[in-house]
Amino acid sequence: MGDGICEIAIDGLPPVARQAPPRIDPVNQLDEDGQMVAIPEEAYTIKRWQVFCIIFVILGAFGGVVYFIVLPIKSYKPPSVLKPEPGDPSRPFTDPTPEIHKEKPWEQQRLPNYLQPYEYRLTLRLDVTKATYSGSIVINLRCYHPTEYIILDIQDVHISDNLVSVIDLSTGRIQPVSDTFQVSDRRTRYIISVAEKLRVGSIYRANITTFTGRVNAEPPGLYTARHRTRRSGDRRMVVSGLKPTGARHVFPCMDDPAMKATFDVIIEHPSDQIALTSSPSESTTTLANGWIRETFYRTSKLSTHLLGFALFEGLTELERYSSRGQVVRVWSPFDPNTSPAAEVALNTTLDAISNMKDLLGLDYLLQKTDVLPVPGQIVPYDVYSGLLMVRDTLLFCDVDDSSIRDQLQCAMALNHAVAHYWFGITVTAAWWSDLWVTEALSTELAYESLACHFPELSMTILASYDTINTSQLWSTLSQATDSFVNVSVVMNNWVSNAGYPYVTLRQTVENNGARRLYIIQDAFSYFLASKSTLHWNIPVAYKTRDQSDARVLWLNVSIENISDDSSKGEWVLGKADSNGFYRVNYGPGNWKLLADQLLTNHTVI
């Protein structure tokens, strides 16, 4: 009934719990007139409903977003030719005009864009039994505007200042470092000041020979988790928690989602421990005292928060190769030959990749994908390029011993993690405020895959972007309706406003005897005294007893009134067919009419 509760049951998943309707005082006096908004007869035809399905999924995902993601579409080459040439410093300098600098550019919220990284060379020395780690990093940069500062994001990482150098790769000349310092206000930045300004069109290398950090008990950064194996008992693992701004807790970097670069990673670790990152292992070198140096192939261009790390012992892999030589591995603390749970997880991951490739018409280009159980992980899944970390209780599900609900939850977690390859890794958020866009799209794609449903949605267009922001999403959805709906106008307030609206419908009789229907919107609140000036663009669907077909009015102002062609004593029902993300309220008389109708013949409503 029109109590304003929106129940969603998608492909057999349980609907959200109903809540009691709010206690809202009826509107007793209205003195503002409005005009009827003309709604064409063909308001919802030929796949336009799909756009609204996406909109409502976006609204649902937006409320629960914790982080989100994102990147350009690049592929690994086969292992035999995987080692690419170094970053392309000869690329034309065609980026937008750099930002206007402040006197202290490190105080800006975003890093100034006059320097752009194109390649990182990162070495980490890790041991699951140690609470600290060390490393070194080389960052190759292109200069787009003269500057004497190289500004890096850093948090809880210590740099040895006397081990920092800068080289002009265009000339091979060393750039003297005049100072290094760290500032901490709302954010922590490490600044390398050079004696001469860096020149536009040149490429530079910032080399930090040594830095150290701590392995924490929880994210952000590198943190420890424990898993229990049947043979060896409790075993520790070190994993990364880099979303959204955790990379700076691991190594000095330009931790901006739009500043993408390739990564050459080396991890030094004890030989009896297994190291994983976003790309396949290329080679190992034996070191002293039972350690090895493991070199990994260069990644595709990534944002810093999508470079994952893991170091562990005691886990066994179950793997399968595709016809293209791509490998998917599921790691488990038990023998996969004695329990079907690991095989179920592997098959679910492979099915998700296959379903989404078919849904989007876009290939899955990662050469390897590791699926790793992380006990006690705060979020259900933490997705990095080539490395999916899933809470262990959501990864392993025995079809013979688990309920249908548990099986759906496990399948959804893996499908959602895989979906982030297209919306989260292939397509990157332009800035942290846009992360919800990729989260919403990956949620929709995961539901589609899970249900083996193939609607003709415009996700293929969205997946062709390098990065994505909110306006691009609205533009693409508008195009899918042949510009019949201006999605930006509809959705902007839904994204920027806190909460959601309730709509009051009230029938009145004017002094001249004319019947009018007033439609009023306000921000919903459980507290009657709360007042708000917020408003939304709401497609209010309503019908009356004698007019069974729902009519739609776009309510984009606080109060609208239209001619009421219903007869005296006839009820009006808002949010007809329960479509809409808002609550509904009426005057006392209409509530009574609806109640009487339910008692006499509820099927009419």
TrEMBL record:
It comes from Branchiostoma belcheri (Amphioxus). This is Aminopeptidase N-like. Residues 345-458 form the Peptidase M1 membrane alanine aminopeptidase domain. InterPro entries: Aminopeptidase_N-like_N, Aminopeptidase_N-like_N_sf, Peptidase_M1, Peptidase_M1_aminopeptidases, Peptidase_M1_dom, Peptidase_M4/M1_CTD_sf. Pfam families: Peptidase_M1 (PF01433), Peptidase_M1_N (PF17900). GO terms for biological process: peptide catabolic process; proteolysis. Its cofactor is Zn(2+). The gene is LOC109468583. The keyword Transport does not apply. Residues 117-306 form the Aminopeptidase N-like N-terminal domain. Belongs to the peptidase M1 family. It comes from the Eukaryota. The lineage of its organism: Eukaryota, Metazoa, Chordata, Cephalochordata, Leptocardii. One of its GO terms (cellular component) is cytoplasm. Keywords: Hydrolase, Membrane, Metal-binding, Metalloprotease, Protease, Transmembrane, Transmembrane helix, Zinc. The chain crosses the membrane at residues 51-70. One of its GO terms (molecular function) is peptide binding.
